[in-house]
Amino acid sequence: MMLLQALLLAAGMFWQVAWSLVLGFFLSAAIQTLVSKERMTAQLGRNGLREIALATAYGAASSSCSYAAAAMSKTLFKKGAAFIPSLAFLFASTNLVIELGIILYLLMGWQFTAAEWVGGVLLIAIMALIVKATYPTALIAEARRHLDEATGEDETVAGETFWDKLRNPQTPVTIAQTFVMDVSMLWKDLAAGFLIAGVLGIFIPAGIWGAFFLHGAPPGVQLVANAVAGPLVAIVSFVCSIGNVPMAAILWGSGISFGGVLSFLYADLIVLPLLDVYRRYYGLKMAVYIGGVFFVTMVAAGIIMQFVFGAFGAIPHANPHIRADLSLFAINYTFWLNLALGALAIALWYVNVKHPMTHSCPAHEGHAH
């Protein structure tokens, strides 16, 4: 019975984020197909404040799933974006998006929505400072080489202007091929993440979480310990930035601190399957560097947000009965978005089946097959 509940919870989490997964992978494939390396380098090719701000804005307007965002960030970096803007895009596309704020508001209250958005900007600022202070020039060059070897050289479709490329009959075929290739690379990691989240949500009772979060410890100790514990739980537990909101609600109802919940929410980018994705994209050394920088950034942001919201008396009360609401399916905006984006995924899969990628495909010469 509990196993069935865990599977149902995992399915419910997947249902919440399925449409954003498809959207993120589609946008990533479109950029790979339509945007030249020269254009991307001109937009985001430096580690300056303008480029970081621009990448943040692009991220906030794009995907809300960490896996799709990782694929998109990889594409930006491969196309010539500098390292810090690529990471800024990653944070923004998983913390500053509207739909994530809506789900946080509905499940946990406006305070978490505000803390997620304000904290998203704070995360980017802290990350940029850490990376600039430790800038790994040789490691970045090695990561670019590894990425080219892992995914092959991209070539945009023919066309003088963006609209010429969009009208090119080869464009939908190339987008479909790239979409299917990216999904094929990550679907096992996605499935594992959802299943782990469902098992943890059902099989670990609130009392175990309470002990782990040091209930009864001095406030200062609990604050720091929970801010560290949040990302540690995230690393082994959940799947996507929207998908981990139900898990965050479970933790909040089980007694983790406000800052601990936030550091957990911020840590969608360092779950184990995603760390393995970084390894595949950039190599082991860069994956370790990204994981370390992100972990420190998320802990620091969680602690700061606890102080800020505590100072204004804006920390809400927890809902200990949240689990019962998480596996429910309803005909709402998620249903219609999943229907629409599901149809898009099927169409892309069909186009790829009709036009399988081959070495002779001009838009993908140099791809690893």
Question: Can you describe what's shown?
Answer:
The chain is built from 17 helices and no strands. α6 packs across α7 (110-133), α10 packs antiparallel against α15 (272-282) and α15 (272-282) packs across α16. It is mainly alpha-helical and 369 residues long. It has one domain. 75% of the residues lie in helices and 0% in strands. It has helices at residues 2-34, 37-44, 49-60, 66-78, 83-95, 98-108, 110-133, 137-151, 162-167, 170-203, 206-212, 219-237, 244-254, 258-266, 272-282, 284-311, 333-354. The radius of gyration is 20 Å and the shape is globular.
Largest sheet: none
Mean pLDDT: 81
Helices, by number, come to 17
Distance between the termini: 43 Å
The secondary-structure element order is: HHHHHHHHHHHHHHHHH
Strand content: under 5%
Number of strands: 0
Task: Describe what is shown at a glance.
By secondary structure, the chain is mostly helical. It has helices at residues 2-34, 37-44, 49-60, 66-78, 83-95, 98-108, 110-133, 137-151, 162-167, 170-203, 206-212, 219-237, 244-254, 258-266, 272-282, 284-311, 333-354.
List the helices and strands and how they pair.
Elements: H1 2-34, H2 37-44, H3 49-60, H4 66-78, H5 83-95, H6 98-108, H7 110-133, H8 137-151, H9 162-167, H10 170-203, H11 206-212, H12 219-237, H13 244-254, H14 258-266, H15 272-282, H16 284-311, H17 333-354
Helix pairs in contact: 1-4, 1-10, 1-17, 3-5, 4-5, 4-15, 5-7, 6-7, 7-16, 10-15, 10-17, 11-13, 12-14, 12-16, 13-14, 14-16, 15-16
